[in-house]
Design brief:
CATH architecture of the largest domain: 3-Layer(aba) Sandwich
Organism: Falsiruegeria litorea
CATH class of the largest domain: Alpha Beta
Radius of gyration: 23 Å
Keywords: Repeat, TPR repeat
Structural class: alpha/beta
Protein name: Tetratricopeptide repeat protein
Strand order of the largest sheet: 1-3-2-4-5-6-7
Strand content: 5-15%
CATH topology of the largest domain: Rossmann fold
Number of helices: 16
Number of domains: 2
Oligomer: single chain
CATH superfamily of the largest domain: Alpha/Beta hydrolase fold, catalytic domain
Helix content: 40-55%
Shape: elongated
Largest sheet: 7 strands, mixed
Number of strands: 7
Distance between the termini: 59 Å
Length: 368
């Protein structure tokens, strides 16, 4: 084993699975051991900030040398079939290597176009590194023999995936109520290993949860992504415009409604925000939406109803720091400083990095 890769041999198999894993040593819920039963496994753990642009240390000094080393290894070991598998940055790697090796790929999420505003690559990549393979949708004339499964709550991956729908042999599937952690969600639902087994056997993918319409509605992915970007940029009026178009194209999409509620809230349009947060929570009960409902009610002036909503949050999601904090704000409005302080302290304990929570505790303690 090296810092960058580990080879898990299965002498009885002529298959090779290249698993693009996290740089740390965790084994993806025992997935490596499961895959090893079916094939030889090459686990690649390159620092995610490189996005595999420079290849894999120990296999080659460049991506081209790395691909050549793997190709030579395939020939020497008479490998009959190669598979590439990964999530997020590893999902990009799985598609990239599948294209070069003409292997069969499976990507869970991941940006297929590097450098889009507010994307993971822009936020985390080594800025001194040159992008040599920035747009997978335009790189391979023969296409990519792969399946790309994207969570519909992830606006960046969905936007990138929408640009890949015409790539030959690449099948893109979107999942409702799933965000960036696609593999984790499938594992939590108990379907990940069954899905991968069917993929390796070449049969119809088994166990996929509700498939969405993120790539079938007219311009939905683009409007969702742009609206989300504008929300991050605090251009709230433009965010409302784009997110409204997205919601009209795909009314059942909970994350669009959640972000639209946040944009309305930032504009002070609390009745409109309340409607969007309510719609979100009715589609898929979640702490963020229920907190949004509570905040909107408090801003409208219905403190008791707001407090009830935040109480529901901490009952259903006791580790949700925002629920405790917002409950404390309601207590302050009701003149219950002692109770508010207890709730603010709990919020700060759950989220010690949140400076607002700590500041609120300090300020209230100073007054008592």
């Amino acid at each position: 084993m090296t810092a960058a890769f580990q080879f898990l041999e299965n002498p009885s198999s002529k298959k090779l699975i290249i698993l693009f894993s996290d740089p740390s040593a965790y084994d993806m819920w025992g997935l490596e051991a499961h895959l090893r039963k079916a094939a030889n496994v090459l686990v690649i753990r390159v620092n995610e900030k490189t996005w595999y642009q420079n290849g894999v240390p120990g296999l080659g000094k460049s991506l081209e040398e790395t691909i050549s080393s793997i190709t030579t290894w395939q020939k020497n070991h008479k490998i009959s079939k190669t598979y590439c598998l990964g999530q997020s940055v590893g999902g990009y790697g799985a598609l990239l290597f599948a294209g070069f090796l003409d292997a069969k790929g499976m990507a869970f999420g991941g940006e297929t176009v590097l450098g889009v505003p507010h994307g993971l690559y822009v936020r985390r990549a080594n800025k001194a590194m040159q992008i040599t393979h920035g747009n997978l949708s335009a790189m391979f004339r023969r296409g990519i023999n792969a399946t790309h499964i994207v969570g519909e709550r992830d606006p960046v991956s969905l936007y990138c995936a929408a640009q890949s729908t015409e790539v030959p042999r690449l099948k893109v599937t979107t999942l409702q109520r799933v965000g960036t952690q696609v593999a984790q969600e499938l594992h939590a639902q108990g379907v990940l290993t069954r899905l991968l087994t069917s993929w390796l056997q070449g049969t119809r993918l088994a166990g996929l949860p509700a498939v969405g319409m993120g790539l079938t509605s007219d311009r939905f992915a683009s409007n969702f992504y742009v609206g989300w970007c504008k929300l991050r940029e605090k251009n709230y009026e433009t965010a409302v415009d784009y997110l409204t178009l997205a919601a009209q194209a795909y009314p059942e999409h909970d994350a669009v409604r959640l972000h639209l509620g946040r944009a309305y809230h930032s504009l002070g349009a609390h009745q409109e925000a309340l409607a969007q947060f309510t719609a979100t929570h009715e589609m898929a009960p979640q702490a963020d939406a229920l907190n949004g409902i509570g905040v909107s009610l408090r801003m409208i002036g219905d403190i008791l109803q707001a407090r009830q909503k935040h109480q529901e949050v901490i009952t259903s999601w006791p580790e949700d720091a925002a629920g405790w904090y917002n409950l404390g704000l309601c207590d302050l409005n009701l003149g219950q400083k002692n109770v508010a302080l207890v709730h603010f302290r709990r919020a700060a304990e759950l989220d010690p990095k949140n400076k607002s929570y700590a500041a609120r505790v300090k300020a209230l303690e100073a007054k008592m």
